[in-house]
Design goal:
The complex is a heterodimer of chains A (268) and B (110). By secondary structure, chain A is an alpha+beta fold. Chain A has 8 helices and 9 strands. Chain A has 2 domains: 126 residues, no CATH class; 129 residues, 2-Layer Sandwich (Alpha-Beta Plaits), CATH 3.30.70. In chain A, strands 1, 2, 3, 4 and 5 form a 5-stranded antiparallel β-sheet that branches. Chain A has a 4-stranded antiparallel β-sheet with strand order 7-8-6-9. The two termini of chain A are 33 Å apart. Helices cover 44% and strands 4% of the residues of chain B. Chain B contains 3 helices and 2 strands, in the order E-E-H-H-H. Chain B is flat. Chain B has one domain. Classes of the chains: A alpha+beta (268), B mainly alpha (110). Chains A and B meet through strand 1, helix 2, helix 3, strand 5 and helix 6 of A and strand 2, helix 1 and helix 2 of B.
Chain lengths: 268, 110
């Protein structure tokens, strides 16, 4: 800030904002945590009611012109995206934070404070998220398991078909498999999401990621759940009690509430 | 036939988290690039770029963790991302050459 003369240079400082906490919250939660550039430590920039979790970066790395090309550099992108999450993860479960999307950058401390004071919704969002974290649940359906069960239901339990009739039955079973997997995936997705929503404060069913599928598995659930920290065990128990006859589940997190950070209608 | 165990899967591409939980690249990218509150900063990250990036990453990403496991670059095969590495060095070299030859990056030399 003081070096106004170099305001346009590559070394000029800018402030990258990771998220927002309530003012006075998290005073020591980010101690010793370094920012995206691995050089500057996290600082809390205080506004009237809330404070920005931020760190200094240089325009040489995050300025308008370089940022676009940096975004296309996969190694740079992976490193920075992981660093963004690492900073917020450092305080997850201890401090309630409204996580910002990647790449929110200001040219001065004053601009950060101005943003904080203009966005009155941030405080209401903090209130809504207070004491809660996000847990991710992914569900995968095993084609082999479904095939085995269908075969058993048709009385086909041997590995090799014993007769021509059994051979034909197996052939038609293979054709039915896709339908069965499809149907089961839809059923499980609805049922599981409903059960987990019951154990959470809020829930979002994100689209399943095509790339997460392997030939032998079908992803049917990619849910995000806002869970109060004191109900986390209960939520994990709810996941453990889901139907795992043909399916397996992965729980990720605790995350800052990335999926619940946009203002809801109540916050507006 | 055996049924896959209904437990947590592989621990590839993991990063230590505050709560002691590891995170896979796919899940981190999905959240940090595609979720979180959008607030206009001074530096405009081209939202179209981010959107495009996110879509591509959604297509790529899972394989990302698997690719890493196999020692392959996760962005391989994506024209938007691939080949970006090495370009800064190339550009730097070009600049040095231009300086040395006195061409100095004139417009007509595109």
């Amino acid at each position: 800030m003081s070096a106004a003369a170099s305001a346009q240079g590559d070394d000029a400082a800018a402030y990258y904002v990771y998220g927002v906490v309530a003012r006075g919250d998290g005073a020591d939660a980010f101690d010793g945590v370094v920012g995206l550039d691995q050089a500057h430590e996290i600082l809390l920039i205080e506004g009237r009611d809330v404070a920005a979790v931020a760190s200094e970066v240089t325009l040489g790395e995050f300025g308008d012109d370089v940022l676009t090309s940096n975004l296309r550099d996969p190694l740079w992108l992976e490193e920075k995206v992981r660093a963004h999450d690492r900073v917020l993860a450092a305080a997850v479960e201890r401090v309630t934070v409204v996580p910002f999307r990647f790449g929110t950058i200001y040219r001065s401390l004053d601009h950060v404070r101005k943003m904080l004071d203009e966005r009155a919704d941030l405080e209401r969002t903090l209130e809504r998220l207070r004491g809660a974290v996000e847990l991710g649940v992914k569900g995968f359906l095993s084609r082999d398991a479904v095939r085995d069960r269908l075969a058993a239901e048709h009385g086909l339990d041997g590995e090799k078909p014993a007769s021509g009739r059994e051979y034909m039955l197996r052939r038609s079973l293979e054709r039915d498999l896709d339908d069965a997997v499809q149907r089961l995936a839809a059923e499980l997705a609805d049922d599981n999401h409903e059960r987990l929503t019951g154990a959470a404060e809020a829930a979002i069913a994100n689209p399943v990621r095509a790339a997460d599928e392997q030939p032998e598995e079908r992803m049917f659930l990619n849910g995000a759940y806002l869970v109060r920290v004191d109900r986390e065990d209960g939520f994990r128990a709810a996941v453990a009690s889901l139907d795992s006859t043909d399916a397996r589940y992965e729980v990720t997190g605790p995350w800052p509430a990335y999926n619940f950070a946009e203002p809801s209608e109540d916050d507006a | 036939m055996t049924r896959p165990p209904a437990t947590q899967s592989s621990s590839v591409g993991l990063t230590a988290r505050g709560g002691g939980h590891p995170a896979q690249l796919a899940d981190v990218l999905e959240r940090v690039l595609d979720k979180g509150i959008v607030i206009a900063g001074d530096i405009q990250v081209n939202l179209l770029d981010i959107e495009l990036l996110t879509i591509r990453i959604r297509l790529l990403v899972a394989s990302a963790d698997k690719a890493k496991e196999m020692g392959i670059d996760w962005w391989q095969g994506d024209p938007f991302l691939a080949g970006r590495r090495g370009q800064p060095e190339l550009e730097e070299r070009l600049k040095r050459l231009e300086r040395a030859t006195g061409v100095d990056g004139a417009d007509e030399d595109e």
